Amino acid sequence: MKLIKARNLHRDLGYFYIGLIISFAFSGVLMNHREHWHPEKYTTETKAIEVKLPLESEINEKYAENLGKTLGIDDKMRRHNVKKGTFKISFEKHDVEIDMKTGKGEIVSFFKTPFISQTMKLHKTDSNWWIYYSDIFGISLIIIAITGAIMIPAGKFTFKRRGWKLALAGLIFPILILIFLS
C-alpha cells in the first residue's frame, strides 16, 4: 500500500508541476549564459553618444530621468547607477552606458524576447505570492525525488542496492563544485 501511495504522489505532483519544471529548467539554462548573450532581449539599434556629465555625487534619479529625456528616450526609467567609472541607466526599452571621464557612451534600444523574457521573470521576481508558490514547488520537488527513489520495490535497481550510490554521487558533485568555485 505504501508503494502505491508513493507512486500516486510522485505521478500526480509530476503531472501538476510539469509545466513549471520545464519552464524553470528552460529559463535556468538561459540564465546560466546571460553573461554571454542576452536571451531576455534583442538589440534593435545602438547609437553612440557624448554628453557632459556632472560630478558623481550630483547624479541622482531626477538627473538620470532628465538625461534620458534629453537623449530622446521616452520610456519609463527602471534604475540607474555609477559603477567602475560607468554611468548606467536602464529603461524599459533602452540601456544607456556612459564613461564618467570621457562622457562617451551608447544608447542600446531593444525589444523583450517573447516567451523567453517572461519565463526568465520566474527566476527574478520577488513577489510574495510567487515566493510562497516557489517554496511549495521546492518542497514538492523533494517529495518527487524521495518518492521516485522508493518506487522500485525489489531487484538490483532499488535505492537500497544501487540508487544510494548514484544519489551520493549526485550530491557530492555540486558540493565539490561549490568548494572549488568559492
UniProtKB/TrEMBL annotation:
Keywords: Membrane, Transmembrane, Transmembrane helix. The keyword Membrane applies. The chain crosses the membrane at residues 12-31, 130-152, 164-181. The keyword Transmembrane helix applies. InterPro entries: PepSY_TM-like_2. This is PepSY-associated TM region.
